[in-house]
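Q: Structure tokens for this one, please.
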Amino acid sequence: MGGEIVNADSRQVYRRLDVGTAKPTREERAAVPHHLIDVVDPGESYGLALFLEQAGAAIAAIHSRSRLPVVAGGTGQYVRALLEGWKAPAVAPDAEARRVLEGRARASGPGPLAAELAELDPEAAERVDLRNARRVVRALEVARAGVSGPPRREPPPYDALVVGLTMDRRTLYERIDRRVEAMVEAGWLSEVEGLIADGCGPDLPSMSSVGYAELAGVLAGHLSMEEAVQRIKHRTHRLARSQYAWFRPSDDRIRWFDAARGTGPALSAVREWAASSGACADG
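A: Here is the predicted structure, written as tokens:
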């Protein structure tokens, strides 16, 4: 269909985080153009405002070539913001303030920070996952800068078909567990070891990705490999559950398909939509 992929996974944007983010292989990227993969170093900041800017530019460039943008990835906030035309506040991270806030979160949990956010910006406190310390810290940064309330929205200048792939929860967890084991076999621990050797400590936002902190614990002698793998599996199960908060089965914008039955029905739906909307490169 003349498609090009726009990554919407908040961890695949980081260079060198390859195995642990299940990043597309070199062969896959050679077969189909990919955008927003490997755009920042592990020590750099990356957030919603930058994603919306870069994704918008990538989509416009793909359209200019009369090709089909295919946005793919599991970061629900990124996908929803793109579909709904959010205008994210361009508040630059404050490294020192963030260090203090993250220290408070480590010492006392996200609860006190969530209470502070609720005072400064009650609407943000309702939108943010208050169990996610990193999200609460970022929301506090924005609120302290005097930016409050819901994000401004402007409808994006294009139509979209939203396809959701789901499956029975038990089957999903089994697939997650097999994939974690395959990623460990593929050299995930060595990847983490190389990052840490080059100064990428577990305190970096990029290294908070599922599995990286756990494997850093193995290298530091705090966890056995067996314990780390089990924690990674459980943490990935939680991530899968949390994705359903962003991609709700009740959301009538999403056309859901059972992935356990194969991707054929989903691909047929995409072809029908693309043909009717003139979105295919071949018309």
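A few notes: Residues 166-243 form a domain with the Helix Hairpins fold (CATH 1.10.287.890). The beta strands are 3-7, 34-35, 68-72, 86-87, 152-153, 162-166, 254-258.
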